[in-house]
Every structure is written in structure tokens, then in C-alpha cells.
Amino acid sequence: MLNPMKAKISPLFFIPLFVGCSEKIDDRFVGIKSDLMQIHVVIELRVLDKGPCIKGDAGLSELVKEGYLDAVRSDSWGNEYRFMCDGTGQIVVYSTGPNGSFDNCSGDDVCFEG
């Protein structure tokens, strides 16, 4: 039987873990993705309760007014989170990122689709 405490692991075993990981992940993006997933769930609950998704221009303030969120939330750069519904049930919740402008979920935008 192999004793795991005495097993020898080649240093090459660890190389794939580090290749391509030279960029430091910004902690702000990790928190934003968590926020976006939570907001997405809130929007889905609202759709189940009241029907079609509200228009994104009403924004999170409508979800606060209806009691689904406690407050309008903002990303790490002070921009309010936003969302859009395409009419087919697809909901996209997003942050416009550091530049503050929506780039169709590219560039520095952080998006969660579901």
C-alpha cells in the first residue's frame, strides 16, 4: 500500500497551476461577481412573484421600492449595478467597471448572465 506521507511528487506537477497566472486578481472583481449573482437571484425571485422582468432603466431602485432589495448597491468604483432583460428570460446583471461606461459586457465590464 502506498503511504501518502512518503510519496514523492515531481515539481513539474505544480507547473500547470502557475502557467498563465501571472496577473494578480483584483479583489474588487471577486466582490462584484458575488454581488451580481445575488442581484440576479433577487431579480429571478421578483419575476416569479410578479411576472415579467422590470425594465432595466427602472434599475435597482424599483427592486428596493418593491421590497426585494434593502438598498441600491454600487460596485467598487461607485457605479450603481445595472441589469437588462431581453424578453426571453435572459437576465444580465452588470457593473460598468472602472471606466463607468457600458461596453456590452466587454472591456472592463463585469457581467453575470443567466
Give a quick rundown of the structure.
By secondary structure, the protein is an alpha+beta fold. The protein has 3 helices and 3 strands, in the order αααβββ.
Features:
3-stranded antiparallel beta sheet; alpha+beta; single chain; 114 residues; globular; 3 helices
Tell me what you see in this structure.
With 114 residues, the chain is α+β, with helices and mostly antiparallel strands. The protein has one domain: Glycoprotein, Type 4 Pilin (2-Layer Sandwich). It has three helices and three strands, in the order H-H-H-E-E-E. The chain has helices spanning 15-18, 27-50, 59-65; strands at residues 82-85, 91-95, 110-113. The protein has a three-stranded antiparallel β-sheet, covered by helices on one side. A hairpin with a 5-residue loop joins strand 1 (82-85) and strand 2 (91-95). The longest helix has 24 residues, at 27-50. The termini are far apart. Mean pLDDT is 77; it is low at 1-24.
Q: What percent of residues are in strands?
A: 5-15%
- Average pLDDT number: 77
Distance between the termini: 47 Å
CATH-level-4 superfamily name: Glycoprotein, Type 4 Pilin
Secondary structure elements and pairings:
Layout: H1 15-18, H2 27-50, H3 59-65, E1 82-85, E2 91-95, E3 110-113
Antiparallel strand pairs: 1-2, 2-3
